[in-house]
Write a structure and sequence with these properties.
Elements (H helix, E strand, L loop, with lengths): L4 E7 L4 E3 L9 H12 L7 E7 H6 L10 E6 L12 E3 L2 H7 L5 E6 L3 H8 L4 E9 L7 E2 L7 E6 L3 E3 L2 E10 L3 H4 L2
Length: 183
């Protein structure tokens, strides 16, 4: 059985997630939520893993990559893409998941970008979608695929405001379409 994973993303009201390789907003509470959720494990000897595309990796400021306290796996068409020691490159989404099977990993999170989210949202290993809903429309050039057809809302936090931007934290459960299991 392949490793189960969750998705974490922030998007605006139009499902926008980025512009020119950066976040169109700066919400420190969302960044803290992301860090805390993707880092927390029941015991210090076990890490979580984050899977991301090459463009997402390169959008992280060099001083902050690899993301500390997590195993970083970057998806790239180039198997020889350079990664720091203890972090990995995979040439497919399934390969990334298979790399983690023998590892002492608590949870696996898919953290972007759009192409990787699309693959994750069609995968039977998908579990939860942690979505920060930014309640405004921003000028974006990258978008989260449609998710409301295959995810069921489990919870929603109170609306918070930071830098004159309203947002809330939602958690959705993935409902893998049964007709895809037959393929």
């Amino acid at each position: 059985m392949r490793e189960k994973f969750d998705i974490i993303v922030a998007c605006d009201l139009n499902r926008g997630i980025g512009k020119n390789g950066t976040l169109p907003w700066r919400l420190s509470k969302d960044l803290k939520y992301f860090r805390d959720l993707t880092s927390a494990t029941p015991v210090p000897e076990v890490l979580n893993a984050v899977i991301m595309g090459r463009k997402t990796w390169e959008s992280i400021p060099p001083a902050h990559r690899p993301l500390k306290g997590r195993i970083n796996i970057v998806l790239s068409h180039h198997a020889d893409y350079p990664m720091p020691e203890g972090h990995f490159v995979a040439t497919s989404f399934d390969q990334a998941l298979e790399m983690l099977i023998p590892a002492p990993v608590d949870r696996v999170f898919v953290i972007g970008g759009a192409e990787i989210y699309s693959q994750a949202m069609q995968h039977p290993g998908c579990g939860l979608l942690y979505l920060t809903e930014v309640r405004a429309a921003f000028d974006c050039d990258t978008f989260l695929p449609e998710y409301k057809q295959t995810f069921q809302l489990l919870s929603c936090s109170e609306v918070e405001t930071e830098s004159n931007v309203d947002f809330c934290f939602k958690v959705y459960q993935y409902n893998f379409p049964e007709y895809l299991l037959a393929e």
